[in-house]
Design goal:
Helix content: over 70%
Strand content: under 5%
Number of strands: 0
Structural class: mainly alpha
Distance between the termini: 56 Å
Radius of gyration: 21 Å
Order of helices and strands: HHHHHHHHHH
Shape: globular
Largest sheet: none
Length: 309
């Protein structure tokens, strides 16, 4: 293939993807700004911290407003882009996939906990959560329930609709699963352990830098005549990718920590795969709910009264 034909093929394959990645990044920034707006508005109205009848109720109101705005925004975006959200119950034929969505997080958490016990790494040091030794069951259940009520819908809306649904506009379904797993594995995994409800600022900055560097590579490939300059244009995106991968590896200090990171990635991958296969948001929601419940159960049942971070 001649250099000119190669550039044309690259234009057809890379340019739409680069544009779509920019759209997704802008969407995630919008989600982050909405969370900050909700936080600032509630603080201005009810004080710092917000006092609306107790901490749990305050968190419920804050999470409810955040989720409502997110759902409205996502619904409008899906209509504009003609994305099938998947608001349907899975069929009987999807029972196996639903079972996988539930079991994979539980098995991964159990294996991580077992390895952590053998290697003397408390599980709560990975999740960055703790429960008092004499904590009443009801408050713990309420907190876990709030995490499910707000966290699970937010995850499926962001990961499956905004990210996976957008990728499916420009790549095949299988490629969208891989890309969704990779991107959510970066932006939706919290620095303080577990999956984030909304992307953190540092992760968003990294996504912006990667998107801009990819734009530089595409621009160089399309607009620059000299081959060595085109190769030079690819350098920034390769550098940013290497930094992201190496920084992620550097954060893993133990075998249990590596398994914990792999668990988040596995659950995100299972969610993306089952969503594509079932075309229902309820199945990936099962995966996220299973992970959140498994994490809470391990910390509450086996490590109450411990705080190891």
């Amino acid at each position: 293939m001649s250099l000119q034909n190669s550039a044309s093929a690259s234009h057809r394959s890379n340019h739409p993807f680069a544009v779509e990645l920019g759209i997704i990044t802008a969407l995630l920034i919008g989600v982050y700004l909405w969370r900050e707006l909700v936080r600032e508005a509630l603080t201005a109205v009810f004080g710092t911290p917000p006092v609306i009848g107790g901490m749990f109720f305050s968190a419920l109101v804050s999470g409810g407003v955040l989720l409502l705005g997110l759902i409205v925004f996502t619904g409008a975006y899906a209509m504009f882009r003609d994305i099938d959200i998947g608001l349907r119950l899975p069929s009987r034929n999807d029972a196996t996939l639903a079972g996988i969505a539930v079991l994979v997080p539980v098995v991964c958490v159990a294996v991580t906990k077992l390895v952590g016990t053998v290697t003397d790494v408390p599980y709560n040091s990975l999740t960055k959560t703790s429960v008092a030794a004499d904590a009443p069951v009801l408050p713990v259940l309420l907190i876990a329930g709030l995490g499910l009520i707000v966290g699970v819908p937010a995850l499926v809306v962001i990961c499956q609709v905004l990210i996976q649904g957008s990728f499916e506009q420009v790549v095949s379904a299988s490629a969208a699963i891989v890309l969704t797993t990779a991107m959510t594995g970066f932006v939706m995994v919290s620095n303080t352990g577990g999956l984030a409800t909304v992307p953190e600022l540092g992760k968003l900055i990294g996504a912006v830098v990667f998107t801009l560097s990819l734009g530089v590579a595409v621009y160089a490939n399309e607009r620059v005549d000299r081959s060595w300059l085109r190769y030079l244009g690819v350098a920034p995106v390769l550098l940013v990718t290497a930094i992201i991968i190496l920084s992620g590896i550097a954060e893993i200090e133990t075998i249990a920590g590596g398994l914990y990171a792999a668990t988040q990635l596995a659950v995100l991958g299972v969610a993306a795969y089952t969503y594509d296969e079932t075309e229902s948001l309820f199945v990936p929601a099962l995966a996220y709910a299973s992970l959140l419940l498994a994490n809470r159960t391990v910390v509450f049942v086996f490590e109450a009264g411990m705080q190891n971070w």
